[in-house]
Amino acid sequence: MEKLSGKRVLVIGATGGIGSHTARLLKSSGAELFLMGRNASKLHTLAEELDIPPTHHYITDITRFDEVQTAASQIHSQIGHLDILINAAGVGIIKPLESLSPEEFVYSLNVNLVGAFYVLKTFLPPMKEHKKGLIINLPGVLGKTPMAGAVAYSASKYGLNGMLKSLREELKRTDIRITNVFLGGTDTPFWDTIDLRVQRDKFVTAQEAARALWFLCQQPSSGVVSEFVLQPFNHQAI
Ligand SMILES: NC(=O)c1ccc[n+]([C@@H]2O[C@H](COP(=O)([O-])OP(=O)(O)OC[C@H]3O[C@@H](n4cnc5c(N)ncnc54)[C@H](OP(=O)(O)O)[C@@H]3O)[C@@H](O)[C@H]2O)c1
What we know:
Layout: E1 8-12, H1 17-28, E2 32-37, H2 40-50, E3 57-59, H3 65-79, E4 84-87, H4 102-130, E5 132-137, H5 151-170, E6 175-183, E7 186-187, E8 204-205, H6 206-217, E9 227-230
Parallel strand pairs: 1-2, 1-4, 2-3, 4-5, 5-6, 6-9, 7-8
Bound molecules: NADP nicotinamide-adenine-dinucleotide phosphate (NAP).
């Protein structure tokens, strides 16, 4: 296992269920933590809880390239490059095509795919110069297995998975590792607005999902965990 102590780690979507628990674990393991989130009050509360200084947390909407660039240049001016980048930002609009609006489709792609591209575009170059690093994204099982009623979400997450697989090929001559995490149903605020018959008490907990990310951050850099799957046994409501 690689030590996290002193590693420079950015958690994007840090205000979310999985992001916030991952941030707590990383902080308790001694990482130099940077947080990025869209919701200012949630981000400040988390930063205060974890004693993260203002230089290390950024209110950023990842669908705004200018905002991602500003945060990235401030982070890079302090540390040069990140050791680990975790993108745990995402939105879950899970609806069948007939009730899905064009705006909801575009919004899903903007956050889950275009935003993830903006993040890579800004944070990868310094990592590439250093030829080392770990990039973790969360396409989820709906990024590789179809489900009825998930047109927009699956489009965005299959796209994310494809983008990262292609990038992995581009980075073959470096020691930059790309890990795609395929979580099944995980009990976070993500599900609060989703109208599906599921049993959230049978989901993976946010803490368990965060522990998986924390575990992945500590894998030896001599190899790469390309894919990691964590699913509940069964959560279909009867
Ligand atoms: N929960 C699951 O069952 C599950 C399963 C597979 C994969 N995933 C993926 O895991 C990731 C984390 O999900 P979660 O379960 O922790 O959901 P969550 O609790 O809803 O957290 C998602 C986070 O993403 C942030 N976010 C959304 N749009 C953003 C934007 N434009 N810019 C910056 N941040 C933005 C949200 O910020 P706000 O607080 O401002 O909304 C929130 O903090 C997502 O990518 C999700 O697709 C989740």
